[in-house]
Specification:
mainly alpha, Growth Hormone, Chain: A, globular
């Protein structure tokens, strides 16, 4: 006869589906996921149309890189302040402010394009304004999401959050490509503005479990506390450096897809859309893979995936065939997302709620800071040489950095 205690001691291993999507058990996380995904679809519609518009107006890879620079540099400069506010103000309130500003910028660009008066400098100014909004909204979002689930499900929530972003990277460019070719760029920007309504509604519906307490310390003192925490916690500085190097060398793959599509593969807007969509599909695969993995040696997994990413970036740069290029950009998207999700999980698991905004703002500065510098430097170098040469060079550097961390950062590899 089987006793009651022995019967209850046997717990079936959760299935693959339950393990991958377990963070969806939490109501507030589900709401945030749906709202953020809807808004991200609109954002990627705008990214596609805006990149093509800037390149069409200027016919310059440098101007295209500068647009990415103006969109990202405020995040590099102001995210530390955003992190302090995320640890002393309502994170939901900061996010709402950020969404309203970005919505206003989308509708402003809609009006400029629809009336035919748009110039590249108008787009740069709006990109800069959106960057300012994201420098406060980004740390608040990164700090809010982990508080919507229990600690053991944080890694899964981060991976699922990456999935919504990359679902948008597929759906957004597909819808954006249809709207751009059939209706015009102004419709892409208008639909992005409308998409912000979804995330605003879900933000009003959620009930955050952790509300930051007001602080009497100055903003600068709070910022210093966050930096001291990162210096004192083993492996944290290396993770921040890894995030910066990752985006510095890999983000140009996305930024200069219009150049690769037109100048190297001799395609058009549809070719660019295909490359962007398959990069997103690869990222979805990478995020699903990360969601199914256990919280074990995630730093080592991140660095190994980074080495594989470098190989695919270099191979994409060397390709002259559209189908082969699509395959390489798909594989690069998958590897990039495994690196990103694993790296973010290690950081999030090593920080408490009261410090989360400041620590994640530093990480965000590093992660997002590599983007503008990589875009501008690579945009200039592409002008001097060619896009394929820079892609191959970036890929080789990514592989070299991965080998360095594997060989000389042994303690970090155990996290």
């Amino acid at each position: 006869m089987t006793t009651s205690s022995s019967a209850t001691s046997v717990c079936p291993e959760p299935g693959m589906f339950d393990r991958v999507f377990k963070a969806f058990r939490y109501r507030d996380f589900r709401l945030m996921w749906v709202g953020a995904c809807t808004s991200s679809i609109g954002t990627w519609m705008q990214i596609l149309a805006q990149s093509w518009l800037v390149y069409r107006l200027s016919n310059s890879s440098l101007y295209l890189g500068l647009d990415a620079f103006f969109g990202q540099i405020p995040i590099f400069l102001l995210s530390l302040f955003g992190g302090v506010f995320a640890d002393r103000r309502s994170r939901r309130g900061l996010l709402l402010m950020s969404q309203f500003i970005q919505m206003g910028c989308a509708f402003t660009l809609t009006a400029l394009v629809a009336t035919g008066v748009v110039r590249v400098w108008h787009i740069w100014c709006l990109s800069f304004t959106v960057g300012i909004a994201q420098s406060f909204g980004g740390p608040a979002y990164l700090a809010l999401v982990p508080t919507l689930v229990s600690k053991e499900d944080i890694s899964n929530a981060i991976a699922l959050n990456s999935i919504q972003f990359n679902v948008a990277r597929v759906v957004g460019p597909m819808l954006g490509g249809l709207a751009l070719n059939g209706l015009g760029a102004s419709w892409c920007f208008a639909l992005n503005g409308i998409s912000f309504v979804a995330v605003i509604i879900t933000l009003l519906m959620i009930r955050p479990q952790f509300i930051p307490a007001p602080s009497a310390t100055s903003v600068l003192q709070s910022m210093k506390e966050g930096l001291r925490f990162i210096r004192a916690r083993e492996g944290m500085q290396s993770l921040v450096a890894l995030a910066f190097l990752l985006t510095l060398l890999s983000f140009p793959l996305i930024t200069f897809l219009p150049v690769m599509a037109r100048e190297v593969l001799h395609g058009n807007a549809n070719t660019f859309t295909l490359l962007l969509c398959f990069s997103g599909l690869g990222s979805i695969l990478g995020a699903l893979t990360s969601a199914a993995m256990k919280q074990k040696e995630q730093a080592k997994r991140s660095v190994m995936a980074m080495g594989i990413l470098g190989i695919f970036i270099a191979a994409f740069g060397a390709s002259r065939n559209v189908i082969v290029s699509i395959a390489f950009v798909f594989a690069a998207g998958a590897a990039l997302m495994i690196v990103f999700a694993s790296n973010s999980s290690v950081v999030q698991l090593r920080v408490d709620d009261v410090m989360r905004g400041r620590v994640m703002s530093v990480y965000n500065v590093a992660f997002r800071g590599g983007m503008p510098f990589g875009s501008v430097v690579c945009g200039y170098l592409i002008k001097q040489t060619s896009a394929p040469v820079i892609m191959i060079g970036n890929g080789i550097l990514v592989v070299a950095i991965a080998f360095y961390f594997l060989l000389f950062q042994r303690k970090l590899m155990k996290l």
